[in-house]
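This section describes the prediction task in plain terms. A model, or a person checking by hand, is given the sequence of a single protein chain and must write out its three-dimensional structure as a string of tokens. No templates, partner chains or ligands are provided. The sample shown here is typical of the held-out split.
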Amino acid sequence: MEENATEFWFGTIEGILRNSEAEPTEPDRTEEMDGGILLISGIRVYLPRFGINVHEGLFCHMKDGRLEPLYFLTVIYDREDKEVLYDAEENFVDTVHQWLKGKCTPEQLEQEPCGVKGIREEFIDGKGIQTGGSGRNPCGNGTACGSAGRHHGKR
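The expected answer:
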């Protein structure tokens, strides 16, 4: 597991992050994509078995000089080269399952150990304990919605 990462099960981490309203220690990053801007959370969930980081994302467009959110995404990054591998309007488990093209079941993915890095909180039994920092994640508690939506392969 990545140094300074707290270990969790992948099937529970999205809910833990949402319920704790965790704040990133690193800035969210932006990337131009499909005529809009993808705002990606600085909090990353690392799946060591697959060598990927999973992030919450928010697809936006510019309106009157301001970012206007359109919908939430789950974004998979290659851990080595930081390249977007896949994004979808699905939850973490379903997005990774689709990206893996059925190499394992959603139930197997839920049991995968994962690490959380880039967070201003320390988690104990699913509860966040504030350890410092200020500001809010622009994605708020917005995890990728479970609706069917656009899916992208490797860019």
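For orientation: The two ends are 27 Å apart (CA to CA).
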